[in-house]
Predict the 3D structure of the following.
Amino acid sequence: MSLSGYQEFFAGSADQSTLRGDASNEYGVDNAGLHNGQYTRITANYSTTLDSGIDVSGVLTISSRDCQGGDTVNCNVVNHNFINLSGGFGTISIGERFDAGAAMLSRMTASGPMSEPDGNQLHAVYGTTDGVNKYGSANEVNYASNALKVLYLSNVYSGFSFAVGFTPNSGENGTNVSGQATSVTNDNWTNFNDVLTVYGKYAMEMDGVGLELVYGQQTGNAGQFNGSNYNDLEESAYSAKITYAGFSADYRKNEADNSGYIKNGQDGNDEGTSVCAQYDMGNLSVGACNMETSHVDTSNFTNTTETRTYSAEYNLGGGVKVGATYFDHEEVANSTTRTDMTGLAARIAVGF
């Protein structure tokens, strides 16, 4: 068994010129200062081999601030508790872990320098967005959810691989919840039952150029709440990534349409798109991402967000990294700018 850990601290400041559509005042919504990171944790890994030749491994992660105090944004995201059974048949994983989309899709919005904007640390700097309208999701439904599940990951055959995940109840996070939770947030069904996720991936390399193509779909059952029936989950997501020497770039999109919204309503057309690029040169990494979301509301108006990040990170060695992200975030509802802000966030992170 081995133990590893991770700590991070943030500092930054933001300039928010528009809040909830009002640009007539200079809003000082700025949480400048030092902030604890959301992903500080201790992780235990173990492995053994059975007499049958099957490899058994497991992960148990404990976060220092999971859902404590004001840190409630990423509840149940950091903590993992699962086992893996691996062999010539591939890998079967059981427990609290991410689903097939997190395992297969290219997601440089999370893996690039500073891990932003998917890291969701920038909110500690700007603090406030529209909070009224719905704008769609930047990732597939249940992304980064560690609801209890069974996940199968195939071995790679001539560049091809696939993954299948099954989550009986996406509201079950090890708290002994029985049955389907009738959870509706912002008029959107949030905890689907019997979620089936299937992804396929092809990877190749030729003359130093690498290419990864991924496509997947997930389905799940919704239900009824306060007399209203909600649409079942039907979503597709895909990504493409290219690499050459120290350069990499990807494109990713998720399309959930009206999944989780009231049947026969106008809400829907939920989409998220990201385009990212990164260049690594020695201990220095620089990158940029543009992430967009869209949603059509009950009045048939289109709401959109756009987040642009420019990041740089330097590896000091010994597991210590320092970096900074400049970001620009905008939310538009029915052609009216509801949120407009720019800011800078810096991080020191230590892995041990």
